[in-house]
Every structure is written in structure tokens, then in C-alpha cells.
């Protein structure tokens, strides 16, 4: 999910020190750089700069994080530009630190070069490169066999899907939670063959794609799950289309971006027209689950301007059954 409400709860200094030591990172260089679902820090050691994450093990267990990192290792070894995870001193990728009730899961990644994409980066070349990046990932993941018994969850098993009604205010549980539940039921009836379904990023929006010259690198695989490839594409298009703090982007610009994005994707991986036709429903799924996620985070943090604007704008769009993409097709 995007960086909306910033989780500013301070990390336990003792746990942070242990986490830094586990990955050989210098505490003197450590600085907090934000986070939506995790506390995220940057720190250095002799061989470079790294990103350290402290997360809730109730949301992502240590085994789930290990499974994410194993997949990342496979992807980077097979030509996908992504920020690789690094192993801790004990040889594992992730660890559980802290006492009962205050435990956190920790992991670290190499810091990728570049800056997150912005709306000003929506050039034809970037659209093509973005599509190729996802296409290369999907081509690789089609033949991925996990090296251990650890597994990532399926998309519908995520808490924002399974507990949608409980996460929403009472007056939204039927009109919005009910819509999400019905859409989940519809999508779960779709085929899950290897050419269309597998372990995917599920969150390749602007903030999780870094641009360094002409190269794009994918980061933040925290939400990776088994889902349809077309959903991974629809998520990108959804975030390109929405602009809750502004007037929105011209449909013609969005159409051109979509065409170049899908053309770039097709250069790396073939996806049938049958699945491309499902992207409107996958975009609507992201619109609904992002609404639910913001409501969840807003229970513990004051939502920022982006999140407040999203809730205000998309509540009416959801209740009015408006399409997530601003033009047909």
C-alpha cells in the first residue's frame, strides 16, 4: 500500500540496536525514513547503504518474511531489477526481536539507487520500462519453486480482505464492506493456471519503483502474494489514474500511458486478452482494499492529507459504482 498515514510510533531503542547489530549496520549512521506498515530505517556498513525494516509479526510472520526474501533472491538472480534482501549474522534473512507483546520482525535490504517515480515521470519511455519490469518479474515467477517449506499467502488471505467489515466504520460495513466481499467471491471463481496466476508484487505503485537515469528498480515486496498477473498490472494502472489531491489526469494521457505500459509488458511476458479484460475488476479491488487499509491504519494514526483525500473522494466513487479507470476499455 502507498505511503499514506506515516506510522510514527517510535521503535524501542534497544530492539533497534539489536537489529542494527544483527546486520552489521553502524548505529551512528542510522536514520528513520518513514514507513506505512513498518518502521523503516537507513544505515550504513563498509560495503554500502542498507534499508532496515521493523514490522509487526502479527501481520507478517518471520517465516512469511523469509519466504519473501527467498523469492527476492530468485528474482534478482533471474534478471529482475529489485533491491535484494541481505542475510543476518545467523544466516537467516529475518529475525524476531523484543519481548512478549512488543516483538517485531526485522529484515534488511540493499538500498537501491534512484528516487521514487513521480507524476512528472509518466513519459512513454518510463511507461514502457515499467511494463517491462513487471513482465520480466511475471515471466520469472511462472517457474518459481520455493526452496523451503515457507510460503507466502494467497491474496484473499490478507487481513484487509478477511476482516474488511471489522476494519470499517459501522455505517460503511454493508455498503463498502459488502461490495468488497461480493467482488472477492467473484474473483475467487476465476482460474488460477500457471500462465495467469502466481507469486507477484501486488504493490508496484510510484513509491515502490525507483528511477535511476533510464533504469527502474522495484522495491518493498512486503505485500507480495499469490495473485493474478493481470491484478499486478491493474494495480499499477489504478495508481497512475487516481489523483486525490488534484484535478486528475487527462484520459488521453492515461490511455497513452496504458498502451505503452502494456506494450512494454508484452515484450517480456504474454498475457491473453481474456486476462487483460479483467483489469477493470482488479482495479476496483485495489480501490476497495486500499480504502479498507487506510481505515485500518487510521485507527492508530492520524491520516495524512493524501489518505484523507482518498477516503473523501473514493467513498462517493465506490458507493456510486464508478469504474476505477476513467474511460472504458
TrEMBL record:
Organism: Sorangium cellulosum (strain So ce56) (Polyangium cellulosum (strain So ce56))
Cross-referenced Pfam families: APH
Family statement drawn from the similarity comment of this UniProt entry: Belongs to the pseudomonas-type ThrB family.
Name of protein: Aminoglycoside phosphotransferase domain-containing protein
Record domain Aminoglycoside phosphotransferase: where: 34-268
GO biological process: threonine biosynthetic process
Molecular functions per Gene Ontology: homoserine kinase activity
Amino acid at each position: 500500500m502507498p505511503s499514506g498515514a506515516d506510522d510514527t510510533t517510535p521503535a524501542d531503542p534497544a530492539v533497534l540496536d539489536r537489529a542494527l547489530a544483527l546486520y552489521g549496520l553502524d548505529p551512528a549512521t542510522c536514520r528513520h525514513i518513514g514507513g506505512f506498515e513498518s518502521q523503516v530505517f537507513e544505515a550504513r556498513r563498509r560495503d554500502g547503504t542498507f534499508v532496515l525494516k521493523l514490522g509487526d509479526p502479527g501481520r507478517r510472520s518471520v517465516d512469511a518474511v523469509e519466504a519473501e526474501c527467498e523469492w527476492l533472491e530468485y528474482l534478482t538472480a533471474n534478471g529482475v531489477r529489485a533491491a535484494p534482501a541481505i542475510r543476518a549474522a545467523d544466516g537467516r534473512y529475518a529475525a524476531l526481536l523484543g519481548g512478549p507483546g512488543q516483538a517485531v520482525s526485522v529484515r534488511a535490504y540493499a538500498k537501491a539507487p534512484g528516487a521514487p517515480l513521480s507524476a512528472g515521470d509518466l513519459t512513454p519511455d518510463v511507461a514502457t520500462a515499467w511494463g517491462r519490469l513487471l513482465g520480466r518479474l511475471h515471466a520469472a515467477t511462472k517457474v518459481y519453486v520455493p526452496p523451503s517449506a515457507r510460503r507466502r499467502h494467497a491474496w484473499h488471505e490478507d487481513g484487509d480482505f478477511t476482516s474488511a467489515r471489522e476494519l470499517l466504520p459501522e455505517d460503511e460495513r454493508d455498503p463498502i464492506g459488502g461490495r468488497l466481499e461480493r467482488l472477492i467471491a467473484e474473483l475467487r471463481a476465476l482460474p488460477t493456471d500457471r500462465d495467469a496466476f502466481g507469486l507477484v508484487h501486488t504493490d508496484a505503485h510510484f513509491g515502490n519503483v525507483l528511477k535511476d537515469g533510464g533504469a527502474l528498480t522495484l522495491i518493498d515486496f512486503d505485500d507480495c502474494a499469490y495473485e493474478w498477473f493481470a491484478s499486478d498490472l491493474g494495480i499499477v494502472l489504478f495508481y497512475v489514474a487516481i489523483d486525490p489531491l488534484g484535478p486528475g489526469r487527462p484520459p488521453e494521457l492515461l490511455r497513452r500511458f496504458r498502451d505503452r505500459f502494456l506494450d512494454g509488458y508484452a515484450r517480456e511476458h504474454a498475457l491473453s486478452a481474456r486476462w487483460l479484460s479483467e483489469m477493470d475488476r482488479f482495479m476496483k479491488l485495489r480501490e476497495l482494499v486500499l480504502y479498507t487499509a487506510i481505515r485500518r491504519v487510521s485507527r492508530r494514526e492520524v491520516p495524512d492529507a493524501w489518505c484523507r483525500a482518498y477516503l473523501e473522494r473514493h467513498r462517493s466513487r465506490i458507493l456510486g459504482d464508478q469504474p476505477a479507470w476513467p474511460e472504458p476499455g
